[in-house]
From TrEMBL:
Key word Amino-acid biosynthesis present: no
A GO CC term attached to the entry: cytoplasm
Sequence similarity: Belongs to the D-alanine--D-alanine ligase family.
Broadest EC class assigned to this enzyme: ligase
Name recorded for this polypeptide: D-alanine--D-alanine ligase
EC number of the protein: 6.3.2.4
GO BP field: cell wall organization; peptidoglycan biosynthetic process; regulation of cell shape
Gene field: ddl_11
Matches recorded under InterPro entries: ATP-grasp, ATP_grasp_subdomain_1, D-Ala_lig_Van_CS, D_ala_D_ala, Dala_Dala_lig_C, Dala_Dala_lig_N, PreATP-grasp_dom_sf
Keyword DNA-binding: no
Organism field: bioreactor metagenome
Residues of the ATP-grasp domain: 99-294
Predominant subcellular localization, coarse grouping: cytoplasm
């Protein structure tokens, strides 16, 4: 089977994607698959460079990669691909829609506003949520153009900056607590990892530099674990995820979990969370890639 590893892309997360792709290239079982790297530099590359592959292993992140567009192209061409389908990818990329669906399913998530212009900023609603708030592009990822805002005077500039990256910007309530990530594979919760950022929040630098945030397996007390597991699996189901997705949460000092966001193509670099969690279960990176390919082929209709 000829497997093309799609990496690069045109989003703000291109560098991370290239690292994920290189890591997958290193660890994939080359005795089992014929492997070709496919670096995407422009949108047309997806159509032109995938014609003779049997399976697309996606190492793309962000827009035109994680948002359902590439998945739609591959589906149209009849090429099976890894991970969530077009609809689920789109829903999870749009944080406003993600949170709307979570709220409709009674899954706890921080309060938020979504704006398309500075005129739409509702300062009264922000006061109600209380400062600080997080301001970020609605469809962004990897904490690009994400700001922690502590006073009213800084809101407008943060929104303007976010609108340079996206057509919509989210203003979200700040929930103080410890960040965890819940990797879900085929409706099974893999070992939960704690994320300890060395700065104020888990930003781009903390996510991807070798000496960035620490992450390690964590055992939650039984009652909390049960609630976190239920929330993670319900989130996976509500957003129609398939094969694998990573659900990020924050747990307050009072032990109350909130869902932050869902990653449908989580990072696959040497420092990434999902491969680390799989490792905690005794699954090597090479076997984990096998599992992704196997279950993605089963799910492809």
């Amino acid at each position: 089977m000829k497997v093309g590893i799609l990496m690069g892309g045109i989003s703000s997360e291109r560098e991370v994607s290239l690292n994920s792709g290189k890591s997958m290239m290193q660890h994939i079982n080359k005795e089992k698959y014929e492997v070709v790297p496919i670096v995407i530099d422009k949108k047309e590359d997806v159509i032109e460079n995938v014609k003779d592959i049997d399976f697309a292993l996606l190492a793309l992140h962000g827009k035109f990669g994680e948002d359902g567009t590439v998945q739609a192209v591959l589906k149209t061409l009849g090429i099976p691909y890894s991970g969530c389908d077009t609809l689920s990818s789109s829903l999870c990329m749009d944080k406003d829609l993600t949170k709307t669906i979570l709220k409709a399913n009674n899954i706890r998530t921080a309060r938020w506003l979504n704006v398309k212009s500075i005129e739409e900023i509702d300062y009264e609603a922000i006061e109600e949520m209380k400062y600080p708030v997080f301001i970020k592009p609605t469809n962004g990822g990897s904490s690009v153009a994400t700001f922690k805002i502590t006073k009213r005077e800084d809101v407008e500039n943060a929104v303007k900056e976010g609108l340079k990256w996206d057509n919509e910007v989210m203003i979200e309530e700040f929930v103080k607590g410890d960040e965890i990530t819940c990797p879900v594979f085929e409706n099974e919760l893999f070992p939960i990892l704690a994320i300890k950022a060395k700065t104020d929040f888990y930003d781009y630098e903390q996510k991807y530099s070798a000496n960035g945030a620490e992450h390690f397996a964590i055992n939650l007390e039984e009652k909390l674990y049960k609630e976190v597991k239920e929330m993670a699996l319900n989130t996976y189901k509500a957003l129609k995820c398939s094969v694998y997705a990573r659900i990020d949460m924050i747990i307050t000092e009072q032990g109350v979990p909130y869902v932050l966001e869902v990653n449908t193509l989580p990072g696959m670099t040497a420092t990434s969370l999902f491969p680390q969690s799989a490792g905690e279960k005794g699954i090597s990176y090479t076997n984990f890639i096998d599992m992704i390919i196997e279950y993605s082929l089963k799910n492809f209709k």
